[in-house]
Amino acid sequence: MKPYKKLFFLLFLGAFLTLFFTPPTLAQNGKFTVVIDPGHGGKDPGAVGSSSKEKEIVLSVGRKLGQLISSNHPDVNVLYTRSSDQFVALDKRAAIASKAHADLFISIHCNALDRKRTSPQGVETFVLGLHRSKDNLDVAKAENAVIMYEDDYSVKYEGFNPNEPESYIIFEFMANEFLDQSVYLATLVQNQLVSNSKRVNRSVRQAGFLVLREVAMPSILVELGYISNRQDEKFLKSESGQTSLARSLYNGFRDYKREHDKKSVVFTNADSRRMETNANVSSGSVADGKEYRVQFLTASHKYENQASVFKGLSPVDYYTDGSLYKYTYGSTTSPEEIKKTLREVHKKFKDAFIVEFLDGQRVK
């Protein structure tokens, strides 16, 4: 790298790290808010198929998703980064979510390959992170290229160039506070797209997407299919296909929201009185098969004991929910003891919450 380019990059990296590691604005108490982000729009068509445009497909699916959420969840506030064929800059999309103190950010896209290459097919759901393959980098480059439609994009995004691999080094230094929640949502959505919409599974992945970098909340970017693939495009542009995809996205959201709601465990006075009968039972033992634990981590694979991801918590237990591993810490029959444990775990995992088990099984 030439000296002046190296100096510019280091200055940019320093500015980025300062910006990124500023504590994010946390969602306010109150109505759960989800921001739906149909990619591209207006002068930016996104990927173009033989007879369709990405911007039109994702807007349709995004609207359908929003309608499903609004119809089934009156307690959820649904916002869109765009609800018509208009161009919205990436930083403006993030600003909409941040201003609303959103709880979730779902960005919707379609994938594509150069017409000279044989196009694969299938769905993939991304979370923010460092790309681990050239394919992931290519997807990120394609989606990040939208900033080139913006005026002064090199200034707005501190010199980031979507076509230069050096620009993506910044994602190696990122510590995504919301990664676990994002992976959990991504896994739910990906499973639904495969099982409900019968799409080819291209898995959950990580890559450096600017639009996800800019939002301080659990977030995913969904590639609904390859518009450059004949079979995928036929499905993507059909009314039935778009309805099915929206339903799959909704099912993933629904399951995530259900788990989110379980975090709001409130022990009433009646609960306390009922648990007083077990006051002589020491913490860590189980009476009548009932116990409380603190759940602090969800992952798509099993970690070994003493893994660094546990941040020193030990001993750690886990239970499975479908293909997910859900890790817990502590075990007691006392609601007061588990509250103390929760306060301890919150120092390391802000989103930890209390779960109840009966005879070793999670109470749903």
Query: What is the H/E string?
Result: HEHEHEEHHHEHEHHHEEEHEE
| Structure class | alpha/beta
Query: How many domains?
Result: 2
Query: Order of strands in the sheet with the most strands?
Result: 2-1-3-6-4-5
* Main sheet properties: 6 strands, mixed
CATH topology of the largest domain: Aminopeptidase
Describe this structure in words.
This protein has about 375 residues and is α/β, with parallel strands linked by helices. It folds into 2 domains: about 5-260, Aminopeptidase, CATH 3.40.630.40; about 265-360. The chain is built from 11 helices and 11 strands. α2 crosses α9. Mean pLDDT is about 75; it is low at about 1-30, about 170-175 and about 265-285.
Quick summary of this structure?
This protein is α/β, with parallel strands linked by helices and 364 residues long. The chain is built from 11 helices and 11 strands. The protein folds into 2 domains: 259 residues, Zn-dependent exopeptidases (Aminopeptidase, 3-Layer(aba) Sandwich), CATH 3.40.630.40; 97 residues.
Walk me through the topology.
Blueprint: H1 3-20, E1 32-38, H2 54-72, E2 76-80, H3 90-99, E3 104-111, E4 123-128, H4 134-144, H5 153-156, H6 179-195, E5 201-207, H7 210-213, E6 219-226, H8 230-237, H9 239-262, H10 269-276, E7 290-299, E8 316-321, E9 324-332, H11 335-346, E10 353-358, E11 361-362
Parallel strand pairs: 1-2, 1-3, 3-6, 4-5
Antiparallel strand pairs: 4-6, 7-9, 7-10, 8-9, 10-11
Helix pairs in contact: 2-9, 6-9, 8-9
